[in-house]
Design brief:
Elements: E1 2-8, H1 16-26, E2 33-37, H2 44-48, E3 60-62, H3 74-86, E4 91-95, H4 98-111, H5 114-124, E5 126-132, H6 140-151, E6 162-172, E7 175-186
Parallel strand pairs: 1-4, 1-5, 2-3, 2-4
Antiparallel strand pairs: 6-7
Length: about 190
C-alpha cells in the first residue's frame, strides 16, 4: 500500500519545508520516494529540493491547490492525489504551506467527514499519514493550537491521536545530522 505523508502546520516558518528537506536527504538514495511542494506562499521546498529536480525518473513536483480566491480547491486536491497515486512510487511527502495547512481542517469540518476522506484513501489504496510540525519559542503556542484543532477532529479508534517523537538521523557523506522530529500525528481512520 502506498503512503502519502501530509506535512502540515498553519504557522509559517515552523519548519515544514525543513522537515521535508531532511526527509528528502534521508531518502535521497531511495528511488521509490516522491516529494511535492503544495506551498503557494514561499516555495521553500522547491528551492531546498533542487537536488531532486531534473532526475530521471522525476522525484519532485510543484502542485497548486488554491483557487482564484486563495482557498483550497477540494476537487483539485483529490485530483492531485489521484495523479500521485498513479505514479510508480511507494511513498509521497506532501509539503503544505501555511495557507494550505490553515484551510486543511475546514475540509473535514465543512466539505468532508473523516469517514469520506477515509473512503477516498481506500479508493486510492493509499495510507494517509498526517505529520503536524510543532516549533518552539514564540511559535510553540500557535503550533500546538493547530495540533489541537487537528486532534479535535477526533476521527475514531484505535486511539486517536497517536503522538510519536522520533529522531531522524541523516548521513550525508562526511556530514551527519540528527534532528528530533517533535510531533507526528497519525490518523487512524477505521
Amino acid at each position: 500500500m502506498k503512503k502519502m505523508n501530509f506535512i502540515l502546520q498553519s504557522k509559517g516558518d515552523s519548519g515544514k519545508s525543513m522537515l521535508t528537506y531532511l526527509l528528502a536527504l534521508k531518502n535521497e538514495g531511495n528511488p521509490r520516494t516522491y516529494f511535492i511542494d503544495f506551498d503557494s506562499s514561499v516555495k521553500s521546498s522547491t528551492q531546498q529540493l533542487k537536488f531532486l529536480q531534473g532526475r530521471t525518473p522525476a522525484r519532485f513536483a510543484k502542485m497548486n491547490l488554491l483557487d482564484e480566491r486563495g482557498k483550497i480547491d477540494r476537487q483539485r486536491l483529490f485530483e492531485n492525489l489521484q495523479i500521485l497515486e498513479q505514479k510508480p512510487y511507494d511513498e509521497f511527502f506532501l509539503d503544505f504551506g501555511a495557507p494550505e495547512s490553515e484551510q486543511f481542517t475546514s475540509l473535514f469540518s465543512i466539505d468532508y467527514t473523516i469517514k469520506e476522506f477515509k473512503q477516498i484513501a481506500d479508493e486510492l489504496d493509499v495510507e494517509f499519514i498526517f505529520n503536524i510540525v510543532v516549533a518552539g519559542g514564540s511559535s510553540y503556542l500557535p503550533c500546538t493550537n493547530y495540533l489541537n484543532n487537528i486532534a479535535g477532529l477526533n476521527v475514531s479508534t484505535p486511539p486517536f491521536p497517536t503522538y510519536t517523537s522520533k529522531f531522524l538521523s541523516i548521513n550525508c557523506g562526511s556530514r551527519s545530522l540528527t534532528l528530533e522530529v517533535l510531533v507526528s500525528l497519525m490518523f487512524w481512520m477505521t
